[in-house]
Amino acid sequence: MTSLHTIRVRKRSLGAVVAAAGLATLLAAGPAAATPDPGEMSPGTAGQQESGLVEGRALAPGEIPGQDEIVHSANIKPLANIPSADPTVINSDLAFQGRYAYAGNYNGFTIYDIGNPKAPKTVTQVLCPGGQNDISVHGDLLFLSTDSSRSDDSCNSVSQPATEKSSWEGIKIFDIKDKKNPKYIKSVETACGSHTHTLVPGSRDLYLYVASYSPNEAFPDCKPPHDGISVVKVPKKAPTKAAVVAFPILFPDGGNPGGPANPGVSKTTGCHDITVLPSKNLAAGACMGDGILFDISRPEQPRVIDRVQDNVNFAFWHSATFNERANKVVFTDELGGGGGATCNEATGPHRGADGIYDITGRGDQRKLAFRSYFKIPRHQADTENCVAHNGSLVPVGGGRDIMVQAWYQGGISVWDFTDSSRPKEIGYFERGPLTTDVLGLGGSWSAYYYNGHIYSNDITKGLDVLRLDDWRTVSAKWVRMDRLNVQTQPEYH
């Protein structure tokens, strides 16, 4: 274990946090505004497995599996699991490079050797707290997002109110040439912190599009308005000179006003996540109350092409994924902020779902045209947090569009959106509820396809490795990548 400091993390009981957040209201049938991402909620711990995966079974129609029971479709096989070193710490996003997977968590990050997907190994654990530690890699550099107010930019920092001017949030940069001993080399403070970031590659420089939101007049470093993103420039040959070089305004009119004009919809005060398609100089932003399509041909000056809202069924625009031909975007709605039980009959099939949009037209005349919603067809228990979350393409090519996606305690879904108007699930993996008496927090945060396998970072269970065997996806097994940051979509074919 690489220890860059002594952890001092404030713990709260799940019951107290759920009560404080009013999550019971999320079970109601009416619209509910999102409290984005689980934040300081504590993971549920009931039914924790001691180690490993066991072979599961298929679900009967309408069935909810037993507590902690593994179930999956016939075309998905669980291969391996590395349990969390500390199940009380939330696991978050994933990135890949060569034979390594990099897994963020609210206490830092873990490097896994996945050279043998059936027997992955922990290489090192870096302790550097700061939610949510969104992660990406490029060459010998690793980037972490800190969106929790800290006493300073070190890995020894402790929680500190954002009302204090000395508080720090932003980007941390590590040198990972030595996988067993990563070195923290640079920090860059950004306005309102860094909830997520997206790496935009260049020949001489890397750029990070830093997404953050929720300004407050009481926060010295995060005052409204906050209607854009921070652009961090990282010179490849001198990464310690990384700095903020621009703050482009994406919403000059302020964006979606939210309630009361649009009840149950989050007011746009920045972006949650951005996905770039460098080969097309294109990006899609999921920005609280708005979805946007923008041109990134000038990385320091991204330019909005089109913008859409859904004030009926979307509460919080969370993330975006292009298809391979770049003529569709899948946006996710994180209804309930990831802490609500919204995959039930009361919530229905259109809220807390994916929205599928076709991209029509050319150049600056391109438009986002709504086609349909997709939500997992398997109802979850009212004690399971479940909503659309992080996923990636399965690079099948040939004009077919297939995606693997995390749904928190709804598990992992593989679904086909080749027909934008008629998406359908073709495979799944999930565990039964962590708890059966109170709403718990757990499940898959990120589920991504990389070099022939599905990797999932489960909030409480750790790293899962799955194999997908389906005639519709067999071509993806031949696609080999040297790295994958999912929000920096490659050209697979």
Count of DSSP-assigned helices? 1
Fraction in beta strands: 35-45%
Strands, total number: 31
Give me the Rg, rounded.
Answer: 20 Å
Main beta sheet, described? 6 strands, mixed
Mean pLDDT: 91
Structural class, from secondary structure content? mainly beta
General shape:
globular
Which strand order do you get reading across the main beta sheet? 1-7-6-5-4-31
Helix content class: under 10%
- Ends distance: 38 Å
- Low-pLDDT runs: 5-35, 46-51
What does this structure look like?
The protein is mainly β and 493 residues long. 2% of the residues lie in helices and 38% in strands. It is built from one helix and 31 strands. It has one helix spanning 14-21; strands spanning 2-3, 70-72, 76-82, 91-97, 100-105, 108-113, 121-127, 132-138, 141-150, 168-175, 183-189, 196-200, 205-211, 230-235, 243-246, 273-277, 282-287, 290-295, 303-308, 317-322, 328-333, 354-360, 367-374, 391-393, 402-406, 412-416, 424-431, 444-450, 453-458, 462-468, 483-484. It has a six-stranded mixed beta sheet with strand order 1-7-6-5-4-31, with no helix packed on it. Strands 2-27-26-25-24 form a five-stranded antiparallel beta sheet, with no helix packed on it. A hairpin with a 7-residue loop joins strand 6 (108-113) and strand 7.
